[in-house]
Amino acid sequence: MTMVDTLFGLVPAASTGQQWIARDLQLVNWGGYDGHHRIRLASTATLLSGGSGSGKSTLMDAYIALLMPHTTPFNGASNGGVVGRPRGKDQRNILSYARGKLDESRTQDGTRQRVLRGDGRDTWSAIAMTWVDQAGTELTGVRAWYVPSAARLLDDVVPVRATCDSAFDLRELEAAAGQRFSRPAVAAAGLTPFDTDRDFTARLYSTLGIGASGDGSKAVALLGRIQAGQQITTVDALYKAMVLEEPDTFATADAVVEQFDKLTGTREQMITARQQVKALEPIRGFRDAIEQGAERLRVIEAIGSFEDRTSPAALWRHARRLDLLRAVEADLQRRQRHARGLAAETEARISAAKAELDGVRETLWASGGDRLATAQREMRGAQARLDEVARARRRLDETLADALGEAVTTEAELDRLVARARAALDDADAKATARQALFDAMSEKKEAAADLADLRADRDAVARRRDNIPGDLHAARAALAKAAGLTPEELPFVAELVEVRTEHEPWRDAFNLALGGFATRVLLDVAHLGAFRKAIDAVPTARRIRFQGVPTGVRDDVALDARTLPGRLDYRSGPFTGWLRGELASRFAYQCVDTPGELSQHAKALTRSGQVSDGTQGSHGGSGGANVLGFTNTRRLAHLDQQIARAQERLALAEAQVLEAERRIDRHDAAQRAYAALVEVTWEQVDVAAVEAEQERWAQVIDGVTAGSPEITSLQTRATELDVTIQVLAEELGRTKGEARTLAEQWSATTDDVDAAQLALDDAQSAGTLVDPATTAYLDGLLTSGSEHATGAPVGPVDALAAFDAVLARAGEHLRADRQAAQQAVATARDALRRTFETFVERWPDPNLGTDPDASYNDFARILAELETSGLHELEAEWRKSLLRLSGNDLADLHSALARSVREIKERIRPVNDILEDLPFADDEHRLRIDARDTQSTVVARFRKELRDLREVLATDATDAERERRYLRMARVIDRIRRTAPDFADLVDVRRHVRLSAEKVDLEGNHVALYDHIGEKSGGESQELVAFIVGAALRYQLGDAGAPRPRYAPVFLDEALIKADARFTGRAVGAWRGLGFQLVIGAPNDKFGALEPHVDLKYVVLKDTAGRSRTKPVAGVPDDAAGPA
Q: Looking at per-residue confidence, does 673 or 945 come out higher?
């Protein structure tokens, strides 16, 4: 294609396509540009050069503010590290530009901004750009803002969005600014205002031809990224970021997820419906229980009291009882007649028996029966005495055997034992001696137990410590330490700081005697001495404590002689060690000698027995005391264990002595009781042989009488039988007469009860009191449940009446029990309803549902009825089939979309390569080409295989269990394509399935070099490569990749083309111009020389000391040259 260099850049010579270029940019009160400024732009390339902070980026940001959405940040090339919301308070924004913010300062009232304008007064700002095409058609876009002095947010300003189909001078908005940019004022200035950014940008995009198929936002976003100069390290990332938008697979995956979630939501509704039906099904039973309980309570309350004669309960009782009373009355009359007849019959039988008895007795006396009667009477008396004497003899024998171990067989032996018993009972000293022995044994046991307890307590206390100090001294020291605010460790005893060396253990007793009271002296830091004395003055202690304030931290370098007492001790390391070694060396440097004869050979000496010599003085004795030395107590614990063992033996012996003394007292008491019983006994009371002899004599008399007259025996037997018969009949007669009287009394009382019951019934009927069937049924049931004769066996009238009265006696109790049971049933059912309602609302919250068992029941019953009517809870199985079928189709669509989108990416490279094919790259003999290769990802391959397999599986029939497994398998697949899934991008973003690179080829298309990582190239080479790829991508995004030149030409490059020398910069600029773009480049002063040969219009941006910026043309073009050709 033949290219010509025109005012619009290098364009195809045969092109007649429309192209818009930016002719000029106007600013009013924008950043450092105070007042009105106009910058003319060349149709080819314009350079804005200046120092850092001079205002280059301010001009670039004006273009962003005019054309791009509010999400595009200002000054993106220079401030890539700025954080926060784009154009927020932490970044450059409309307010800071409108007021011309210079800097910030800290004051007493907070942070204060220093601005060029708008400090305490209103101000306004405006931006305008005029575009022109080849035919001279003009379009001006304007954005303006009226900023009140109190404005803090963008919402506080009055924005203007407007266009004009000709050139427009922003100074003409001065009058409209005076009216706060009211719509009529803006229209009067010659502008067409728009209410929204969308309407404004749509007008610009459609007129200027920005974006393919009307989608100008993508093209503008790419222009913004190009202007910001975002750094991309690889060709792959560059192409995907600039050319490829979000693939259709995102929407397809979202649709699959949405469809699955919608169907799953239906499934959840089914499951929820089933759960809700299950939760609410019991409420009807609970409601029935409440109604039944309430009905039972109503009946109980209507019954009234049995004591109220006019109540239904009393009326029912009288009616039922009247029937029973009449039956009892008839039964009593019958039984009374029978009892009277039986009494008359019994009286006749008694008279006949008495007449017969009189005849038998007359015959018996005539035959010698008086002597036989006497013998038999005496025989009976002898038998009675024998029984009594035998019992007394057994008691005597048992007492003598148990208490005394004795036995008596004769009267002499009994007399001897009685004499001994009297002597024992008169001996008072024996009991006193036994009691004293028991007292002595118990005292010994108590003393032994107390000693053992003391030893065990002493051992427990010693085991908790590491020293040998007595417990009372420990307690006294603890009390003083607590009062002084110190710990016991800060008040050590001297004995706790030293220990006798093992090889000198035989000297331990001697060292204890030699050190004496010094060993139990408490040491404390002399710095605490004054405060210690004040603190303890009011503390009472049972043991007197001696203490001494000593210096701490003294060096432990005192040399000790191993032949002296201090040299044979070990010392515990601590703050008092140095002082203690010195003190012992000066006061207790006793020479340890083996014999008393050696004592006089030393100034101070000590023998193993504890005798001390100190010059002419000395001391001896006191051995056997407890050891207090040592910071280990193993020896003391062993000694205590020995003492405890001896104390246990002593306690066991004392307990045995107590048991023996108790047994002696028991034996003495038993003997005394035996002696006391023995002195009350005479031989006649226990002489069994004498009584048996008397019985034998009377038996012989009876035998003699009966042997001489045999008929006497039969007469006597008959007389005895008649006596018994008369006695039995007399008793029977008495009972019969008593029964007859009782029956008569009962009949009389029953008759009265019948009359009373009938009267009560008559009164109730007169009063109109009736018993309804429900009450009758309830009371009959109460009678049946309370009767003890519910087995079905025949019951007499009297028993039936008694049972009825027994039930009535407990009727009040039964009524109370029934009332409580009914109330409990109602309360239980209400609680169950409340819990059911609360659980339901907790699981499925609904602000319109309450939990009151009465007020909310109808709502929940309606919900249950609706659920049962809908049958939703029963359709889950059929629904699952539909879900699997529909979701399987969705997965098939996703699989197809993944394959199709990869093909589309490769197809999109073709128009970009077509553009690059006509552009020389590096030189006229080479071109740049984009190449796409599939990436090999095991994860993606397995995922797509899973899609295919699942699609095939879902097409076959299955059981419910298998469908459930398929559903769970599909749910796992769906979860992987959710936006929040960790591998969503790897699976769904097909841009990751293709690796893009650029290669340098010759004119025949042969490979020359590979361009993959942009960072590997030099700054100039990378800029040229980016220019080619991004330029071609921009042509594609602008929507006219197939046209000879882009309809929209301006491209702003902020801080771009600054890493190359003049040759590579020229090649990059040439690439942009070769693609038909108009360049506006912002660069620092040091890059002016590299860019200057390749641009047609150059400005230097300057800023004065007041912070105001302006542009100064260095080399420009005439006004007519900047317009259309």
A: 945
* pLDDT tens sequence across 215-246: 667 677 777 777 666 566 677 777 777 667 77
Closest CA to 996 of 980, 972, 1012: 1012
Q: SS3 for 528? A: helix
Render pLDDT for 269-310 as a digit per residue (tens, 0 to 9): 777 877 888 888 888 888 898 888 888 778 777 676 666 666
CA–CA distance, 793 with 802 (Å, rounded to integer)? 16
Domain ranges of the chain: 1-233+1021-1125, 245-276+876-1012, 466-632
Dihedral angle at the C-alpha atoms of 1077, 1083, 1086, 1089, nearest 10 degrees?
20
Place of tokens 């009055």: 158
Q: What's the rounded mean pLDDT across residues 547-569? A: 90
Three-state DSSP class for 1043?
coil
Nearest alpha carbon to residue 543 among 465, 477, 491: 477
The pLDDT value recorded for residue 428 is 66
Q: Which fold has domain 1-233+1021-1125?
A: Rossmann fold (3.40.50)
Q: Which residue has the higher pLDDT, 607 or 665?
A: 607
Q: Is residue 35 a contact partner of residue 28, using CB atoms and an 8 Å limit?
A: yes
Where on the phi/psi map is residue 181: left (φ > 0), alpha (ψ -120 to 50), or beta?
A: left
Residue type, 507: W
Count Cβ neighbours within 10 Å for each residue of 606-627 and write b for 16 or more, e otherwise. bbeebbbbeeeeeeeeeeeeeb
How far, in Å, CA of 779 to CA of 299, rounded?
10
Both tokens of 915, joined, read 């553009």
Q: Read off the tokens for 1049.
A: 């030409």
Average pLDDT, the chain: 79
Mean pLDDT throughout 561-584?
A: 91
**C-alpha of 38 from chain center:** 69
Rounded to 5 degrees, φ, ψ at 351 are -65, -40
pLDDT exceeds cutoff 70 at 362 = no
- In 10 A of CB 570, how many CB atoms? 14
